[in-house]
Amino acid sequence: MNHPADKDDAPHFLTVGDDQRAIAVRVTPGVSTAGSPGVLWCGGFLSDMRGSKAQALAEWGARTGRRIVRFDYSGHGESAGAFEDGTISRWAQDALAVFDAETQGPQIVVGSSMGGWIALLLARALAARGETGRLAALVLIAPAPDFTEELMWKAMPEEVRAALMRDGQWVRPSEYGPGQVITRGLIEDGRANLVLGAPFAVGCPVRILQGVADPDVPWQHALRLVTCLAEDDVVLSLIKDGDHRLSRPEDIERILAAVEEAG
User: EC annotation (predicted)?
Assistant: First the structure.
């Protein structure tokens, strides 16, 4: 497959965490300044940085001269590690390490599905360090904060919950490919990272794109997030016929327009 935005087809690798895991990173060279912020892409659960949305963002960066940073979480794509070892804390650590090593100045963080949760945790981590100014904006696509609890655990029949707790994992059928291995560790760690329980501020504009026809993350979930971001400048755009992936040409155009508007 041809990927014109990848000047060097091979990623470079960043060593992250106590286990020294290798995180694959691709950078589209370009400007990253206060007036034209760089962009960090945070992908979804079981997705990778060469998906259609991430690739379209990198190609936009190549066309416009904007720096775009993409990466794969551990256990995803070209990064090292077993997917089954992954947790929200681990993947958020990956994102913060890439942010610290590969970006300079204010950034627009684009988070898709689980990446929306990761982006919010990144904002929380930066705020704890007094670095809220590093965020120019968040652009969240069908964001799925707290999905391990709200959209997985609470939706599981009692017998599935029992099997997960007993066996340590459960294979969830997926319409997108092979079954998804859901681990007890993922569920339990997710509870330490929940963000929807109380209002919080990320300290930058937030733009949310959500499909009303999304079968995986109901549009009401995005509304819950909006109510939690009471102090921030938030715009929620509902796409009536949009699904979870939001990867149609018209969806890609909306995503790129939101990024352009944000910076």
Answer: 3.1.1.93, 3.1.2.22
Residue 16: CB atoms within 10 Å: 24
- Check pLDDT > 50 for residue 7: no
For the segment 16-25, what is each residue's pLDDT rounded down to a tens digit? 999 999 999 9
Respond yes or no: is residue 47 known to be catalytic.
Answer: no
Residue 212: is it exposed, middle or buried by C-beta count within 10 angstroms (0-12/13-18/19+)? middle
Catalytic residue among 6, 72, 113, 189: 113
Task: For residue 131, count other CB atoms closer than 10 A to its CB.
Answer: 14
Q: Could you read off the pLDDT of 33-74 as tens digits, one per residue?
A: 999 999 999 999 999 999 999 999 999 999 999 999 999 999
CA 17 to each of CA 62, 100, 222: distance values in angstroms, whole numbers, following the listed order: 31, 13, 31
Whole-model pTM? 0.95
**DSSP readout, 127-138?**
HHTT-GGGEEEE
User: What string of DSSP letters covers 163-201?
Assistant: HHHHHSEEEEEETTEEEEEEEHHHHHHHGGG--TTS---
